[in-house]
Design goal:
The chain is mainly α. It has one domain: Hydantoin permease (Orthogonal Bundle). It has 23 helices and two strands. It has a two-stranded antiparallel sheet with strand order 1-2. The longest helix is centred in the N-terminal third of the chain and has 33 residues. The N and C termini lie close together (12 Å).
Length: 489
């Protein structure tokens, strides 16, 4: 058996024979979907930390955290909820990220392992639909900020009946245009945006402290949830936070594939729960200030922005726009663009995939999702978390428990190879997916079991992980240690 891949310092790449074996006469390969070369593994821990800072310091994070005040939590209950959910979801993120770094493959190619070369379209497109929804949400936030700036600078702007929709459309076009530049440009944007957004968060916190004459006064708003009432809100809210990043728990290989080392990507990503908790604290404290100043919780920061003088609206609006662009191109374009590429690698490029992502986002109606906080955290976050949980469980089970980290890179790009399964789809993965959805669906339709729906992501990931491991225990697609050694230098 010829040697087709090289293992060096924990990173596997194709050698010349491996590239030659799969780069010709295959519809599963293009320059974006191929494994990274050793030189392309150039992201250190700082790049991953910057990526997470840029993605965490975003308007949806602020709204998620500060909206918990409107549910009746006090400040420490809300911070605890955000931190707890972030720690929980970081576990699958790190487990799945390992595969991206070790083999240099993007998410749709990674999904070929568990669902097959054709079946991979199912998890890839499921992730794409969710990402497109987030793309629309962040575009709506950015459009609100752009509309606010225009209304302050040109008062006649607000007299135009379609002003908000025009602002949204312009911001949508800006996001799509930037996203088309590709993943390396996305990484550079995150590195630029991280310090800017951090400074803006600090400035917002200082304003809140001054407005109520001290930090202690920012946190005096009492919560209305205690005892059983708090725990009844805590569990679905934690799942909401988990669902917030459940998408990245699936397609984190799109980023970790560029890491130099496993330790580098892990160290960089460990900042996520801390940054989430700190920005949650900022959002919660400032939202508590708005209750004292305006008599109601302004959990949408654009609503708060409009209470300031014109100069602040201009500067703050620019920050909101930068934040929305960073999270959009950083977290919400990569997965769907890659998914669309994977549908037709020879024709669809990353840029075309970015355009299709933008178009799909319009169908997700972000204006409705953000109409009320209950739509945002329970309907939107809860529902898609339930959808994605079993996919996460299958991905972790396949890489860690079924294959024990041993993959054949060449076979991932071959029709008729070990990962083609039956007609290109792994029916065992589909079965595990269905099994993973059973408990949440029962909780949705049968009230006494509603906790299974509220915790749909958690129950789905555990059940699907166990089911997939059981179904695949004797599968012929597994690579033995001897077989892995035979193809690896």
């Amino acid at each position: 058996m010829p040697k087709t891949q090289v293992l060096e310092n924990g990173v596997v790449t194709l050698n010349a024979d491996g590239v030659d074996a799969v780069s010709r006469n295959t519809d599963l390969w293009n320059d974006d979907l191929r494994p990274c070369t050793r030189e392309e593994h150039d992201w250190g821990s700082n790049r991953f930390a910057s990526l997470w800072i840029g993605m965490c310091l975003c308007i949806p994070t602020y709204s998620l955290a500060s909206g918990m005040i409107s549910l009746g939590m006090n400040w420490w209950q809300a911070v605890l909820t955000v931190f707890s959910g972030s720690v929980v979801v970081l576990i699958p993120i790190l487990l799945v990220a390992h595969a991206g770094t070790r083999y240099g493959i993007p998410y749709p190619v990674f999904a070929r392992l568990w669902f097959g070369t054709r079946g991979a379209h199912l998890p890839a497109l499921a992730r794409a639909v969710i990402a497109a929804g987030w793309f629309g949400i962040n575009s709506w936030f950015g459009g609100l900020a752009l509309d606010a700036i225009a209304g302050r600078l040109v008062p006649a702007w607000l007299g135009f009946s379609l002003h908000l929709w025009v602002a949204f459309g312009l911001f949508w076009i800006l996001n799509v245009g930037i996203a088309m530049r590709g993943p390396q440009a996305i990484g550079r944007l995150a590195a630029l945006a991280a310090p800017t957004l951090a400074l803006a968060a600090i400035a917002l916190f200082i304003w809140g402290a001054n407005a109520v004459h001290g930090v202690g006064n920012m946190l005096t708003s009492p919560g209305t949830l205690a005892g059983g009432a708090f725990w009844a809100a805590f569990f679905p809210s934690v799942i909401g936070v988990v669902s917030f990043w459940a998408t990245l728990a699936l397609n984190i290989p799109d980023y970790s594939r560029y890491a130099r080392t496993q330790s580098g990507q892990m160290k960089g990503q460990l900042v996520m729960p801390v940054v989430m908790a700190l920005f949650a604290f900022t959002g919660i404290a400032v939202t508590s200030v708005t209750v004292a100043l305006y008599g109601k919780a302004l959990w949408n920061p654009v609503d708060l922005l409009l209470t300031f003088p014109t100069a602040v609206v201009l500067i703050g609006g620019i920050v909101v726009i930068l934040s929305s662009i960073t999270i959009n191109v950083g977290a919400n374009v990569m997965a769907p663009a890659r998914a669309f590429e994977n549908l037709w690698p020879r024709v669809i490029t990353f840029a075309i995939g970015a355009i299709l992502t933008g178009l799909l986002s319009l169908l997700m109606q972000p204006w409705y999702v953000l109409a009320a906080f209950s739509n945002y955290i329970f309907t939107w976050l809860g529902s898609y978390g339930t959808l994605l949980g079993p996919f996460d469980g299958i991905a972790i089970a396949d890489y860690w428990l079924v294959r024990a980290l041993r993959l054949d890179l060449v076979a991932l790009y071959q029709n008729g190879g070990r990962y083609t399964y039956s007609g290109g789809a792994n029916v065992k993965a589909v079965a595990a997916l269905v099994v993973g959805w059973i408990l949440p669906v029962l909780g949705l339709v049968y009230a006494p079991l509603h906790i299974f729906w509220q915790g749909g992501w958690f129950f789905g990931i555990i059940v699907a992980l166990a089911a997939y491991t059981l179904f695949m225990r004797t599968d012929r697609s597994k690579l033995s240690e001897a077989e892995f050694t035979a193809i690896t230098e």
